[in-house]
């Protein structure tokens, strides 16, 4: 990061992103079709996230580093409320019961594309961060489920 930049919490970063990307994505979808646009946006966001994961990784990534470096950042400022289900050497599993990211997209009128630019990038981030880990998630608050059921585990 440049010297004169101020690091902002991830939630605030996502707000800045959606205020620009949301209208652009909708304009492209209107012009070129929703399916084609969404596919391209999803692939692009995943590649960005995969590279971010690589940049955040270090020797001995693993679940402990994921928890300390990433999960803590995602939770900055109370952005998520979670309930831990398992925290062991091979599994980090928790439910997100409240997600300010999902609330933000809804409040700004972008609930329909929130998963596209946020949730859909999680697995790709992990691929970059530590290819020896996998993410299993079947539910998301963004898609109307009662929780996001995150399960990170060693492959």
Task: Tell me what the structure shows.
With 155 residues, the protein is an alpha+beta fold. It is built from 6 helices and 4 strands. The N and C termini lie far apart (33 Å). The relative contact order is 0.18. The mean pLDDT is 93.
Question: Which runs of at least 5 residues are low in confidence (pLDDT < 50)?
Answer: none
Oligomerization status of the protein chains: single chain
Return the CATH topology. Answer: Muramoyl-pentapeptide Carboxypeptidase, domain 2
Give a short account of the largest sheet: 4 strands, antiparallel
Structural class: alpha+beta
Please give a quick description of this structure:
The protein has helices at 10-32, 34-56, 62-74, 100-107, 111-117, 122-129; strands at 80-87, 91-99, 133-136, 148-154. It is α+β, with helices and mostly antiparallel strands and 155 residues long. Strand 1 (80-87) and strand 2 form a beta hairpin.
Distinctive features:
globular, 18% strand, Muramoyl-pentapeptide Carboxypeptidase, domain 2, 6 helices, 53% helix, 155 residues, single chain, alpha+beta
